[in-house]
Amino acid sequence: MAPHPATRRATLADLGLTPRAGANPAIIGITADSRAVQPGFLFAALPGSRLHGATFAATAIEQGANAILTDSAGARLLPPGPVSVVVVEDAREAFARAASLWFGAQPARMVAVTGTNGKTSVATFTRQIWEALDHPAINIGTTGVEGAWTAPSAHTTPDAFTLHAMLAAAAEAGVTHGAMEASSHGLDQRRMDGVRLCAAGFTNLTQDHLDYHHTMEAYLEAKAALFTRLLPDDAVAVVNLNGAHGSDIVELCLDRGLPTMTIGHGQGADLRLLSQRYDATGQDLRFSWQGQPYMTRLNLVGGFQAENVALAAGLAIASGDDPQAVFATLPKLTGVRGRMQLAATRTNGAAVYVDYAHTPDAIETALKALRPHVMGRIIIVFGAGGDRDTTKRPLMGAAAAAHADVLFVTDDNPRGEDPATIRAAIMAACPDATEVGDRAEAILRGVDALQPGDALLIAGKGHETGQTIAGQVYPFDDVEQASVAVAALDGVI
Ligand SMILES: CC(=O)N[C@H]1[C@@H](OP(=O)(O)OP(=O)(O)OC[C@H]2O[C@@H](n3ccc(=O)[nH]c3=O)[C@H](O)[C@@H]2O)O[C@H](CO)[C@@H](O)[C@@H]1O[C@H](C)C(=O)N[C@@H](C)C(=O)N[C@H](CCC(=O)O)C(=O)O
Ligand SMILES: Nc1ncnc2c1ncn2[C@@H]1O[C@H](COP(=O)(O)OP(=O)(O)OP(=O)(O)O)[C@@H](O)[C@H]1O
Ligand SMILES: N[C@H](CCC[C@H](N)C(=O)O)C(=O)O
Ligand SMILES: [Mg+2]
Description:
By secondary structure, the protein is an alpha/beta fold. The chain has helices spanning 57-62, 72-75, 91-103, 119-132, 160-172, 184-188, 210-213, 216-230, 246-256, 304-318, 323-329, 360-370, 392-403, 419-427, 439-448, 478-490; strands at residues 10-11, 26-27, 29-31, 41-44, 67-70, 84-87, 109-114, 137-141, 144-147, 177-181, 197-202, 236-240, 260-264, 271-279, 282-289, 292-298, 341-345, 351-355, 378-382, 406-409, 434-435, 455-459, 466-469, 472-475. The chain has a ten-stranded mixed sheet, sandwiched between helices.
């Protein structure tokens, strides 16, 4: 991440903030974390899921904060004192917009993609298309910031301060194009307000994160905000009509009068997927753009990847690139780490794939996508994360039982929960599965079960390199474990 620009100086007015009473002090830093406050800083006291940031206002003032931004609930918690106070209706939004003004620069062409599944894939493909067209480009999301400027990221959508710092640092390093993932938490918490978007994409909406949003309606509303609230009037919405709730998003965009581009299998899609022919390393794709047919090669396993690629192509076109030039880049696209990644092959020819499916729909999609590539049985090793939507667990078990032939239920990231309880919730919907808590052992058992023509899908952790158990992160990599298991059983590396 970019260091805090120490030399910067702004007034509250410069950051779009109006203090409650008169004073408009100059500030030399901004933060939403009281622990980072230094003399002359603006402290944004934001509402949290556990507590209100205003609880820490006294500490922030002691450390030298000379202005506080908060909402009316926060204002009631503030100690009396000489600092300037800005009270707004939505302090998270005001902070994100202030951060965008504070950091200033952004890549000239920014796009965002939202949806339950496929965000990382679409953002990465978009960045790869731009790179192939010689634009200095990045993608920001679950796998960090990748491309012409890199940084790790703790969140799929970084918090507003980190995000705007990243965008400015990337722009200052010459990056002109950025594709970012908009998670529902990020949208709900206004982490990406102030990002100047020229286009946004929608993949699909199926069950996940009900621990946070409680209902599918609220989850849809959080995602839809990218189109109803964040996209400027002249920006383009690019929507997968085949993704669940795609037509709802199109309707919202048309109601707003937003320019809308559609992709999908059906008639009427601007970028229409006509047919796919699968082979061992990927697929040939026939598609049409505004009625004109094209053929291309995709070196990507899984039918659903064509939808992700089409969405990425649509975003590149919406950001100003020539459609023919964009289509010419598609054979160069490479798979995203941990998404339908061929991790190892047994000496009997059976393949082991690692995939990030951690929702019921993703498990179904990934298993169905493997089917045309597999002559024998499909074996799956999977679990579900702790401290996340508990209601998705039996649905994941049912999806695996419906679309795989042999099931091993194991641990994902149990986080703070009892791993056996998580496994039991999955097993309730797939009682014939074999339960193996230890993930390395489950992978070994799955690999051992592979006969000629079979394939193994290790689902849930994709690119992750750690397993979080009771607050500790232990090194764990599904791709590495797949190789270790094959080497142990076949005696080769
Ligand atoms: C539920 C959730 O999203 N929580 C995020 C949220 O924390 P919070 O609202 O609980 O904050 P809090 O701890 O109550 O604190 C409230 C305020 O007090 C401040 N504070 C706190 C302590 C202190 O000493 N001083 C201080 O000033 C905090 O900076 C904060 O502004 O704001 C924090 C700061 O930005 C985030 O780190 C935190 O992410 C947590 C760790 C998390 O696990 N989030 C996940 C669920 C998430 O965001 N996931 C999505 C991906 C989902 C997907 O798959 O699509 C993501 O975008 O990564
Ligand atoms: N278009 C799609 N439709 C359905 N499932 C998909 C689609 N694209 C990817 N998937 C499944 O979802 C998994 C995660 O893909 P990806 O990482 O691109 O999604 P994401 O939306 O970024 O996830 P996260 O919310 O965790 O960041 C893949 O490994 C695959 O199993
Ligand atoms: N962004 C997702 C990632 C889930 C990955 C899976 N391995 C798990 O731990 O559930 C989440 O935080 O819900
Ligand atoms: Mg992602």
